[in-house]
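TL;DR need structure tokens for one chain.
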Amino acid sequence: GEVVEFWWVSPERVFYSIAERTGALVAPTHMGELYAVNADGTGKAAMAGFRVKGEWLVADMIRPPYAADGKVLVAQQRWNGSNDGSYPTAVRMDIKSSATSEVAVAPIRNARFVADNAGEVRFAYAEATDQKRRVYHRLKAGTEWELVFDESKGDSLVRPLAFARDNAQAWFECPGNHGAGGLCRWDVATRKLVASFQHAAF
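>> reply
TL;DR here they are.
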């Protein structure tokens, strides 16, 4: 396999994902698995994915990566046989044992998560079966998900990226005022999206 991405989850330990060449495909295929190894080469282990327990499960790090107290935030999605996909879960995973505890269930199938700077999973987003994107937000663990952007209702096509340091605002990839692409700031309290940086009009 080939390393796709890697993340330092402690001063001594690294998580990484891999891709492998399958069939006649030239480009390696992302396997949906997470592995870990210590900086000195010891402690190598499969942490999540099919080859851990033979489960039909794909896993990836939640962005931005968050690690604290020997735990890291990971998104997991189990294959359920449906062409429409399944509802991913966010878990805190022990960086040594791979033991997990669930912290969130996505409100939409095939969602990707975004966490804030305190390690709270706050956004979930995906394209629904109509191929229109929905973005959900929650204030903290245990609160309800709220639909804040719905492309099918005429909202802009946006993607949450990360939170500002105070967690009161979040950065979004957005069309910008000219529709050519930009970076927008979304206020958690007012729900207003404002373009901060944008490409010039074509």
